[in-house]
Request: fold
Amino acid sequence: WAQRLRYHSELGSTNDEALRLCEAGVAHGTVVLADHQTSGRGRRGAAWMSQSGAGLLFTLILRPQFEKQHWPRLALAAGCAIAQVLQELCGLPAEVKWPNDVLIDGKKCCGILVETRGDYAVVGIGINVTASPDGEESVALADLTPRAVSREALLRALLDRLSQSTLVCADHFPELVDQVAEMCYLTGKTIGFSANGESLSGRALGISEEGELLVEIDGYVRRFMQAELVRVIS
Ligand code: BTN
Reply:
């Protein structure tokens, strides 16, 4: 994929640029990378802030060759790939917070925003490398490791791993779920979240073969494919 890298020193949002490229019929595997975003976007319409050059900000453009109903798997696959690279390359105890954050010591170091356009899915990834936004439950890699982390090396390792994990989504997803299970931040915790407009709480038990979060609520195990505002209560 390296030859399909489109670098910009500054962009509004790499996801917006990626969505624009989808309309233009860009190739599968194209990557949009920026040093700085003036209007980076997070989930639920939130802004994604990062100081110029302090984050690794990129969007991977995919044309998944599997049914659309399985596209939500991409967020988990991306989280898994990122956590593994942070463990292996940076020696950090990264965990996946279902469905799409990567945490270290309970603090967010990476956010993932998957969006779709026709046959395309774009996977936007923001990693706090040398600094994280103030006043949030967030952390930068440089706060946690004395090893200098080069954004280039990180990007290379991530693209390599992402190309494998997004492929696995099609036919070998249970294997990916097994890997996520080993670094699932929520397992065993009492959590609150909202799903289908309902506010719920219960004990997270793990992740199903399909990538759903399993939560014990009032003695019953319920499965959630999507949820928002997931927070740990205890
Ligand atoms: C979240 O945690 O809410 C998701 C944050 C996703 C941020 C990344 S940074 C690169 C890409 N471009 C954007 O505008 N957003 C994503």
Observations:
- DSSP finds five helices and twelve strands in the chain.
